[in-house]
Amino acid sequence: MSTIYILCVEDEPEVLDVIVRDLAELEDFFPIEMAVSAEEARSIIKEIEDRGDKIGIAICDHVMPGDKGVDLMIEMQKVPFTARTRKILLTGQAGLEATVEAVNKARLNRYISKPWDPENLVSVVKDELTTYVIEQEKNLLPFMSILDATRLQETIRARGSISDY
Predict the structure, then answer these.
(1) DSSP E strands: which ranges in the chain?
(2) Could you tell me the residue range of the domain that residue 87 belongs to?
(3) What is the pLDDT of residue 119?
(4) pLDDT-derived band of residue 107, with 50, 70 and 90 as boundaries?
(5) Mean pLDDT score, 77-100
(6) Which of 4, 52, 111, 120 has its CA 20 to 30 A from that of 84?
(7) Residue 131 within a domain
(8) In a domain, 30, yes or no
(9) Strand ranges (DSSP E) for 20-165?
């Protein structure tokens, strides 16, 4: 089974550290990769793809030097490797126009404004990861202890089997 990563893109190192700290309980199952720019994120995405692994979620700030977070997410939506990645915009400065663009062109799954509530962030990430594994993985059992077990059980029952080995 390939590894499913969480990608966090935030240009402020202190904020990036807080995101990673808030998501620490997920890291044993979903390693967290960090990038401080869209350019660095592209490099990490390529490394993960080259290893044959996956990116389940990309959490991205909007206002960054160089390419904006929305631009990166739109680009990710156009690339087959990251098109199915769940996308969360985490920002305090995106205007309505940028948010609408993210929803329409990047297929943004969630928008969380700064400052965020750590419990809400974890809840949203677990929910999006649950959706990702339901859509992308055959064997859901390894995820029962960390993600939404009820949704995973319902999916297993609906599929009529525990796995498709």
Answers:
(1) 4-9, 32-35, 54-60, 86-91, 110-113
(2) 4-117
(3) 96
(4) confident
(5) 82
(6) 120
(7) no
(8) yes
(9) 32-35, 54-60, 86-91, 110-113
